[in-house]
């Protein structure tokens, strides 16, 4: 017969995991950040934004680049 305390511990860990996953998806709990970049370079010039998430975007004169993000529960969000 399996010890009931092992089942209780397993259920507790499962509940904790599901709680953390629910917190991460709930946008009202984490802080939302908005970033807006406007290029004021001369015509024909551009610059590239390289994010920690490994995404690159080229911004041309008079373009506006915006993005928003939420920090995750663990505070390891890359931006």
From TrEMBL:
Q: Mind telling me which InterPro entries this protein's record contains?
A: Self-incomp_S1 (IPR010264)
Q: Where is the signal peptide?
A: 1-22
**What's the main place this protein lives?**
secreted
What Pfam families does the database record attribute to this sequence? Answer: Self-incomp_S1
Q: What biological processes does GO assign it?
A: rejection of self pollen
Q: Name one GO cellular component term.
A: extracellular region
What keywords tag this UniProt record? Secreted, Self-incompatibility, Signal
Q: Where in the cell is it found?
A: Secreted
Q: Which family does it belong to?
A: Belongs to the plant self-incompatibility (S1) protein family.
Under which name does UniProt file this protein? S-protein homolog
Q: Which source organism? A: Trapa incisa
